[in-house]
């Protein structure tokens, strides 16, 4: 696999690392932790700093999404912010930013649910998806419609294995949302089952099962990422973080596994000397500055809503 080094420069008094939150239509969304959000076009090397919501906590950038709404020609940023209130109770807000209108929408009082923090929301067509778990629904998929700004619930496959230590990971395979489950097989050993979401958006079809994981170090931590052109499945390690280095960085190596569904065998692979391990195959001349309605004198608009008023108090309890 080939990784190319891309130059990135931004006037900043600090030499921080810039983490990638998502990519869409040739543009990358980056974050300088606790500082700012940045929209960057790697093709033109042009970037635009975005305003951070004033009520966003410093540690809120664990769950996020970045997508494009073709109907309104607008890019949107979604951030989930969880914190403890004065009574040590977990509370959460959802922050949705529209680049076109320079507006932050905050939805307060979201239900207690856990979202996979290992990657950003998976973008498929006009939806962003996250793997989620809640006490009322168990394991499920959370979807966000970029056109309507509405969240939706998607049941997991009927044949997933109910095991406490198994987890669901999302990816993009064949242009469809994919779901992988790494779990103990009833016949012994570990297995990864992979499903694709069909076009109706509510049902799944199993496309593959990956065996022979027991020879890997920490086999429960490997998840499917994508299928290569030669048919092999690329597996990545669960806690692998995707980021751009600052000037003080050192060269790292990202270990991967490649699974051949024809012979049922795994083989190791390594991405060497990478500055960014991402799926980026779209080039665009679109200017981040043009996409944003941000001027030096403009003030970001803030709209506040309540989750229960939009979805009802029992939204996360049942499908």
From TrEMBL:
Domain F-box associated beta-propeller type per the UniProt entry, residue ranges: 10-218
Top-level lineage group: Eukaryota
Protein name as it appears in the record: F-box associated beta-propeller type 1 domain-containing protein
Organism, scientific name: Corchorus capsularis (Jute)
